[in-house]
């Protein structure tokens, strides 16, 4: 199941939720200011991020600047405690599924969350290899 970590004032979060709703892809939304992220969730996010804290922590956030934190010098335990106490330090939205993570809204990259079978069907239709090409809904949508 896809989880989207959001905050209410985030315009990119609204775009991501709208995109998933339009694609009829189910997701669970977690407002990071209402539902405190637990250690398991934070470790899952960190493990899936390609560049570790650089991908998920906003060094421009008020709390990071105020405290003059050196995020890279923190242990994992210290980092998790910091995020739990100051969720505003997280970049948003954070989209996570079983295998991958995406931070922010990127209209091209977000397509990776479309189920494989559906992406394959769309490709087949658009490339003219659809077995039911004249009646295919994907073809109708593109013309």
CATH superfamily caption of the largest domain: Glutaredoxin
CATH top-level class of the largest domain? Alpha Beta
Alpha plus pi helix count: 7
* Percent helix range: 40-55%
Q: Enter the CATH topology name of the largest domain.
A: Glutaredoxin
Number of strands: 4
Poorly predicted ranges (pLDDT <50, ≥5 residues)?
A: 139-143
Q: How many domains, as an integer?
A: 2
CATH architecture of the largest domain: 3-Layer(aba) Sandwich
- Alpha-beta content class: alpha+beta
Shape field? elongated
Structural write-up:
The longest helix is centred in the N-terminal third of the chain and has 12 residues, at 11-22. Residues 139-143 have low confidence and may be disordered. A hairpin with a 4-residue loop joins strand 3 and strand 4. This protein is α+β, with helices and mostly antiparallel strands and 143 residues long. Helices cover 41% and strands 11% of the residues. The relative contact order is 0.16. It has helices spanning 11-22, 39-48, 53-56, 62-67, 76-85, 116-126, 137-142; strands at residues 2-6, 27-31, 94-96, 101-103.
In short:
The chain is of the alpha+beta class. It is 41% helix and 11% strand.
Question: Could you outline the blueprint of secondary structure elements for this entry?
Answer:
Blueprint lengths: L1 E5 L4 H12 L4 E5 L7 H10 L4 H4 L5 H6 L8 H10 L8 E3 L4 E3 L12 H11 L10 H6 L1
Parallel strand pairs: 1-2
Antiparallel strand pairs: 1-3, 3-4
